[in-house]
Amino acid sequence: MEHFGDLLAGQVQQKKSAVCVGIDPRWKSLPESIRAGVDSGDRSAVAKATECYCREVIDAVASVTPVVKPQAAFFELLGPAGMLALAGVIKHATKAGVLVLLDGKRGDIGSTAEGYADAYLGRESAWGCDALTVNPYLGDDTLEPFVHGAVRHGAGIFVLVKTSNPGSGFLQDQVLSGENQGQTVFERMADLVQSHAAATQGTSGYGAVGAVVGATYPQQLAALRQRMPNAWILIPGFGAQGGTAADVAHGFDSQGRGAIVNSSRGVIFAYQSEQYKHLDWQSAVAKSAHDMAQQLGEATPG
Ligand SMILES: O=C(O)c1cc(=O)[nH]c(=O)n1[C@@H]1O[C@H](COP(=O)(O)O)[C@@H](O)[C@H]1O
Known SUPFAM superfamilies for this protein (predicted)? Predict the structure, then answer.
């Protein structure tokens, strides 16, 4: 069985790109040609068209993206037909040679977490994902089943540490007292992630357990890179949320490894931007992913 940390390292090296394309298919933003003739009140028809669009997005970016991150929310809102579409998208990406990191932000008491882990993690699981985003703020006992599930199934997890949203400081930046006096909540979480990452590391030096740190907090990102030397970092918040290549540069190690940078709207809806308006929609998507890879390559060390 492949080791997730090594598999991701190999993919990033092969594609020469740290781009993670986020698949967040908001119906109203899909190209006119995809929406034409589809009754927006018919969830089943919308789900089918959405799947078709996502497959084309994957084909457009497959050569330049080691991993895609489908956002479960936009499939769930289409009901059961949306879940079938999500399954189709996962299979399509896998066939195209792109790793699938499902953004489900799962987290629950230990016994339920085990159910989520077995449902999503690994190519042999019901959903067949290579990795899953996990919300750890229920406590360390709720993270363990995901860690064990990842190792058992040759998959990975990305644990929320410092999220990109404006309100992430409400809890995550709080300073602890007692045994961990002076540490912030997100630093304590980072230490937990690092311990799991070190315990699960493969030959690349990176573990099956990674962290999520927003591009919108570049100083914290730089500090967290040092604090979690064995953890892959998924960096969302690039593009639409304001994060730049310079902001994410310190999320990489000194050899330019160890991080993937997600952009969803900025890539999959690139045809809406002035810069790419002259291109057909698939070419706009492909070009924006390619440009992002280039920007990251220029800004990263190594
Ligand atoms: O786990 C995530 O991917 C995530 C964590 C975080 O801190 N911030 C964040 O934006 N995300 C997700 O990353 C994607 C960002 O989308 P864009 O802002 O369109 O690039 C969305 O699917 C978010 O749910």
Answer: Ribulose-phoshate binding barrel
